[in-house]
């Protein structure tokens, strides 16, 4: 068994004070760092995704450039490539060996599987190359990018656990629904105390 950790979108724009702040986002960043410090050998490979949207387009309608966003298909401008909002939250400390995935370049890009590494490799290809069979998922936001990444991981044949104490969502109802959907699809919903 080769276990990977997916750290989804723990970025400044998705944490308190950001353009699309998720309540509890900073605590998630701190919690992930504490987990990695306490269990440095728990994961064979770590992936960290970031929204990395193009500055000069609406990214396939993802940015509401005119009018109000509907917060379902369109959103306020956020995580623009190269800006402070797109950087990881300062409390998120990851190993040097972390594979960084950028997504949403010219498109919505909710799932980590929509992105590519700095070397241009797709997430699915990297999972195969590293022999990954099991994935733990943490990060932001439960009801959007965590949900999409988890469902895609299951579709790729992975055994998935969502560490429910290390995710935070936009809204309680939609986050609960996302976790229920992930559980129904085959994910295990557990807390980080299962990590050894």
Describe this protein's structure.
The protein is α/β, with parallel strands linked by helices and 196 residues long. It has one domain (3-21, 33-123, 134-194): 3-Layer(aba) Sandwich (Rossmann fold), CATH 3.40.50. It contains four helices and seven strands. The chain has helices at residues 25-38, 123-129, 142-155, 172-185, and strands spanning 3-8, 45-51, 99-103, 116-117, 134-140, 159-168, 188-190. It has a seven-stranded mixed β-sheet with strand order 4-3-2-1-5-6-7. Helix 3 runs parallel beside helix 4 (172-185). The longest helix is centred in the N-terminal third of the chain and has 14 residues, at 25-38. The radius of gyration is 15 Å and the shape is globular. The mean pLDDT is 95.
What is the fold named in CATH at topology level?
Rossmann fold
The figure for the number of domains is 1
What is the rounded Rg? Answer: 15 Å
Please report the total strand number as a whole number.
7
Organism: Cryobacterium cryoconiti
Pfam families: Isochorismatase (PF00857)
Protein name: nicotinamidase
Family: Belongs to the isochorismatase family.
Write the layout of secondary structure elements.
Blueprint: E1 3-8, H1 25-38, E2 45-51, E3 99-103, E4 116-117, H2 123-129, E5 134-140, H3 142-155, E6 159-168, H4 172-185, E7 188-190
Parallel strand pairs: 1-2, 1-5, 2-3, 5-6, 6-7
Antiparallel strand pairs: 3-4
Helix pairs in contact: 3-4
């Amino acid at each position: 068994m080769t276990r990977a950790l997916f750290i989804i979108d723990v970025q400044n724009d998705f944490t308190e004070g950001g353009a699309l702040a998720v309540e509890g986002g900073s605590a998630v960043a701190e919690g992930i760092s504490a987990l990695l410090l306490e269990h440095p050998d728990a994961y064979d490979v770590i992936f960290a995704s970031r929204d990395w949207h193009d500055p000069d387009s609406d990214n396939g309608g993802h940015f509401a450039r005119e009018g109000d966003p509907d917060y379902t298909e369109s959103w306020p401008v956020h995580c623009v490539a190269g800006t402070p909002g797109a950087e990881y939250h300062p409390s998120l400390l990851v190993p040097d060996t972390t594979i960084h995935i950028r997504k949403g370049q010219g498109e919505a890009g909710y799932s980590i599987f929509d992105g590519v590494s700095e070397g241009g490799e797709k997430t699915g290809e990297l999972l195969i190359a590293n022999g990954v069979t099991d994935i733990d998922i943490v990060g932001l936001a439960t009801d959007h990018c965590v949900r999409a990444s988890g469902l895609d991981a299951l579709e790729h044949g992975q055994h998935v656990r969502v560490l429910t104490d290390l995710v935070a969502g936009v809204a309680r109802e939609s986050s609960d629904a996302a976790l229920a959907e992930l559980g129904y699809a085959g994910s295990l919903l557990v807390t980080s105390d299962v990590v050894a």
